[in-house]
Specification:
mainly alpha, 2 helices, 0% strand
């Protein structure tokens, strides 16, 4: 009754190859899942925002709120310009 010798020659190479394939599959799966769950949803919401966005109305709202130093709420040019 003799014990079988453990396979040590090439052990690291065989396990590394297997683990690289598994890591690549996980990376591809994660990338595809992230793209379709976050990126596509964000693209859709940005497109919806820009479809309804009125630049001039937003500028007038910010001007009336006094957010600009160069344009006063009355529409005149601010001081320092």
């Amino acid at each position: 009754m003799s014990l079988t010798k453990p396979k040590l020659l090439g052990l690291a190479a065989s396990s590394t190859g297997k683990h690289l394939i598994i890591a690549f599959a996980i990376a591809v799966t994660s990338t595809v899942a992230f793209k379709y769950s976050f990126v596509e949803a964000r693209k859709k919401s940005y497109a919806e925002f820009h479809k309804n966005y009125d630049v001039k109305a937003d500028f007038e709202r910010m001007k009336k709120a006094g957010m600009f130093k160069s344009v006063l709420a009355s529409g005149e040019i601010g001081s320092g310009w």
